[in-house]
Design a protein that fits this description.
By secondary structure, the chain is mainly alpha-helical. The chain is about 65% helix and about 0% strand. The protein has 3 helices and no strands.
Length: about 100
């Protein structure tokens, strides 16, 4: 039992020494200080992402150019088309009777 404890302890020490050896920084290693402008830039980038998300949500409610139907140049022609469509809807609601009053 003592042997197992000594073996386990020795393995732990060896693993720690190996880890320290691998993690050691080379000679002349200098820690680079963080640029003070970096935090400001991160903050501004986060704000711009929020603006893009808001814009996407806003533009999502708009009708795209592809989905817009062509509008006739003549307003009278458009008016006739709208009235014909309305009469068709009324006829459909009345049961499709074609009698004129």
């Amino acid at each position: 039992m003592k042997r197992l404890a000594l073996l386990t302890g020795g393995l732990a020490v060896a693993a720690a020494a190996l880890w320290r050896r691998l993690r050691r920084r080379p000679e002349g290693w200098v820690e680079i200080a963080a640029d003070p402008r970096a935090e400001e830039l991160r903050r501004r980038l986060d704000e711009s992402r929020a603006v893009v998300d808001d814009r996407d949500e806003f533009e999502g409610a708009e009708t795209t150019v592809d989905a817009v139907e062509d509008v006739p140049a003549d307003p009278a022609e458009r008016r006739r088309a709208v009235h014909a469509e309305g009469r068709g809807a009324v006829e459909k609601m009345r049961g499709g009777s074609t009698s004129e009053e």
